[in-house]
Amino acid sequence: MDRIAWEDLADDLKDAIERRTGLILSAQTMTAGKNSPVAATVATAEGKTFVKGLPANDRRSASQLREAAVAPLVTGISPALYWQFEEAGWIVLGYEYVEGRHADYRPGSGDPDALLPVFTALGEINVPDPSPFKSAEDRLRSYIPDPETLALFKGSTLQHTDWVPYNVLVSPERPYLIDWAWPTLGAAWMDPAYWLLRLMASGHSVQEAERYALHVPAYADADPEHLDVFASANVQMWDEIERECEGRITDWMHSVVLAAREWDNHRRNRAKVFAL
Question: Model-level pTM?
Answer without folding.
Answer: 0.91
